[in-house]
Every structure is written in structure tokens, then in C-alpha cells.
Amino acid sequence: MSKFLLNILLFLTLASCVTNPLGRSQLSLLAGDQLTQMGLQAFSEIKQETPIETNQAINTYVNCVVKSLLRAFQHDGTPWEVVVFRSEEVNAFALPGGKIGVYTGLLPVANSQHQLAAVLGHEIAHVLSNHGGERMSQDVVANVGMAIVGTVLDTNTQSGKLTMAALGVGAQVGILLPYGRLQETESDRLGLEIMARAGFDPRESVTLWQNMAKASSGGKLEFLSTHPAHQTRIDALRAQMNYALKLSRQSQAGGWQPNCHL
After folding, report:
1. Tens digit of each residue's pLDDT (9 = 90 or more) over 28-63
2. How far is residue 80's CA from residue 62's CA, in Å, rounded to a whole number?
3. Helix, strand, or coil here: 45?
4. 89 is catalytic
5. Other C-beta atoms within 10 Å of 250: how many?
6. Which of 49, 164, 188, 235 is most solvent-facing, going by the fewest CB within 10 Å?
7. What is the pLDDT of residues 60-99, one digit of tens each?
8. CB 246 within 8 A of CB 99
């Protein structure tokens, strides 16, 4: 049984690799239409469970920023739906299938069109980089690996239970969470490029994360978090800033000058 599962694991990891927009090989076990359906279902559920903001000025502002960002990258022509949710949560998200959600609690923190573009560019980058599909694929492989170990160990003994528990922690800290941090870093990088190509000021991405750091309270240690520490994130953005500024100035010179205001 364990040999059979091992063969499945090897097949999954070797036969299901793709390259993301930044050139990294990643595991992808789910087809694009499967991810799209998952995204549509999740978005539908969120809309049913969360109040939708009806203020016209807020919706016009958020849609203006999204529309500006969408011009800045190649996509398959899928119309993107944007919904602003009335919630104090400081967050936003993008889902496969062209769905974007923005919580009103984000707006006082991302308090300019450029800062909101930094957040939404980051979230769109997650979708373009297939990070959701990659994360689910990692979970599948991790679960198959745990099943292989479970067929070898006697999990009814105390030592077997302790070993399985230790392996579970190892899978989370050693495999899944580090990939999460890498995905976040990639989305920062690609999102910065998207906002710059749209003509937004990339320097405000740094201001955004400084605001986020002030707004957060007692966050997790970076080692046990899927998100880089605020300063790590800021340092990485600054390292790419010269290139991003060049892209932004080129776009502005070509007439791409977003003018979104609340």
C-alpha cells in the first residue's frame, strides 16, 4: 500500500509542474476551470454572508482603481467583478474567475489611490501566479505523504502518535508555510510592477505597509506566518523601487495617469 501511495506522490510532483509569471516552477494539480469554479463558488458565498457596501462614491472609487490596474497586464478578457463589502476587516482579495473583494475597513489604512492599487495589485498577482492552485496542490501532496507514513508507522502506539504529530508540524512549518511566504513575496514583486505599469506611484507601496504595521497589533512571528514581516516586505519593495519608478514614469508619459478619488 505504501509503495502504491509513494508512486502516486512521485507522479503528482513530477507530472504537474508549471512555470509562473516570475519564472518559478510550481506544482499545479488543478485545471484552470476547476479553480475558476472554486473561485466563483467562494465569491458567491462571501456575497451571501457579508453585507455589501452601497455607497456610490466608495464603489466608484474602488472600481476606478481596479479598472486602471486591469489595463496594466495581459489577461484572457474575462470581465472582473468588483464588490466592496461593508466590514471593518482591513483586507481585500482576488479569486480565480475574475473576482475582487474589498472590505471598507481597508480604505482608512490604504488611504490613497496608490496605496489601494498596491493592495489590489498584490491580490491580482496571486491569481495571475496561480498561488491558490499551488497551495491546494501542496496540501494534496502533503496529505499523500502523511498517508504513506501512516501505513508504515503503528499509530496506535504512543511513539507512533508522537511521530505523526511531529511530522504534521514539520509539514506545516517546513513545507506549506514557507511556500506561503514565497507566494506573498512574489505577489509583492508582481503587484508592484502591475501598479507601476498602470501609472500609480510605486513609492506609496512602502507607505502602505508602514500603515499596515501601525494598524496591526501583536502579529505572528515571521517564521510561523505565511506573510513576511512588515519590515522584510518593505525592504524588498525598496530594492525594486528604481525599476518600478521607471515603469511608472513611462506609463504616465504615455498618458496612463490614474485619477481615482474618494
Report:
1. 655 567 767 877 888 899 999 999 999 999 999 999
2. 13
3. helix
4. no
5. 13
6. 49
7. 999 999 999 998 876 666 789 999 999 999 999 988 888 9
8. no
- Tell me which residue of 212, 41, 28 sits closest to 115, measured CA to CA: 212
Q: For the chain, first and last CA: distance in Å?
A: 61
Pairing of strands 99-103, 81-85: parallel
- Tell me if the pTM is above 0.85: no
User: Catalytic: which of 53, 123, 134, 193?
Assistant: 123
* Every domain of the chain and the residues it spans: 2-253
Q: Which residues contact 208 (CB under 8 A, 6 or more apart)?
A: 109, 110, 115, 118, 119
42 — alpha (psi -120 to 50), left (phi > 0) or beta? alpha
d(CA 59, CA 72): 21
Could you tell me the pLDDT band of residue 163, with boundaries at 50, 70 and 90? very low
